[in-house]
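quick one, 178 residues, struct below
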Amino acid sequence: SGGSTITSRKAAFLTILVGCKEISFQEPQPKDRKSLKEIPKKLHGTYLLTSVGDNSEDTVFIKSKGYRIASDKKESVLGDSLVLKQYKGYYFINVNEDPEWLMRVIKQEENGDLTYMSMDVEEASFNSLLKSLSQELPVDSLEVNGEKLYQIDPTPKQLIKLIRKGYFKNTLRMKRIK
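---
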């Protein structure tokens, strides 16, 4: 159904995926990097949002203080619970889901399009992700309200290494239309 596709895409964009598990962080990433007060001007614009492996679409409007998805009237604004950082050509969107931070990575392509990456996976392949990731750096686990959370605390250099090794998968494509 069209409505549930928009909802799932919006959820993916807002970092809440049903049926997926993910690795989280204790603080906004990359750590020791300053949060941006505004979204850089070169990212401002209107984008057509498409899910990888899905032909559904939505529109995203990015402005200096935040973004809004057309199917959702609420604007997400940079602040204490939505933090944007930049490092080595990547932008890191951090969302506070107390007691953890969820993170997405954005890379701007030469044509202005944005590639949106995440480390969340289907539950069936989560254990293999954990095993592989624990070869790279320590993975901590904690239990909160009966749910087990897995967190990593990479240095900025380790974070870039994880991106380059393919731990973050392209989940959405944002084609600049204006």
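The two ends are 28 Å apart (CA to CA).
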